[in-house]
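Many introductory courses stop at the sequence. We go one step further.
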Amino acid sequence: MTLTPENAGAASTLADRMRQHVAAVASEEHNTRTPAQLERAAVYIETTLRKAGYTPLRQEYAAGELRVRNIEVAVANVAKGKRPERIFIVGAHYDSAQGAPGANDNGSGTAAVLELARLLKTVQPAAGTEVRFVFFVNEEPPFFLGEEMGSMQHAAELKRQGLAVEGALVLETMGYYSDAAGSQQLPPGLDGQYPDTGNFIAFVGTIESSALVRQALAAFQAASDFPAQGLAAPAHTMGVTLSDHSSYNRHGYPALMITDTAFMRYPYYHTAQDTPDKLDYDSMARVVEGLAKTIAALAGATRG
């Protein structure tokens, strides 16, 4: 079947849906070096969100000579004319590194946020609460941690508006798992403190976001039997700051990354071999099912 936004909803299971999303978004390099492919990915995301019942919003800005955009939808329980009292961000970047299709980095995170938005469309957060599902452009070099990074633009605008972000959950490389001994590498200094088998999902943040890491990890472990680990460590620890959650940290917001640990496990990271066939969609689906319950719990949500 040809993968298009129109037939993306044809998959019968969550794993199949995620497989379709990854194939549609991340079968070829897509970034500002390949603007037509980047635009196709953005249109696919917007069309899929519309099919789920949302009206996507765009945050457009200039990156060099190119116009790019973040894409956002939300579920909220906020009185008309009022500002949300607390906001949760659930986000992922949709661009790929140069020379890479980006199936795991970050087609997997993009697919996960698409499905979380669909699964949580009918929930009602606690009064005054909003959950925003955001798809960031320009996470990869040369934009990482610069002003033209999509999440930096997004976090800066939230700060400019004086909005209260209680937590940003960034989904980054979600799709590779292994039961082989020695398949998991660890940052220096953490040997022996975590498993050396790469079959878990990790909740990772800086020391400043340690409360959010503990809270989110506990909610996930209460909702799912999928193996999960948590790490709150100094910012200089290898890998702890390497995604969009750092943009929110820089603007004073608690934030964490939910990840399969990327290059510490995934042998195809930032290569032309980061293709959709490498991912474990059944495990991804189990993680997303757990995250849907986790996000609902954090937001105090009830089913509408």
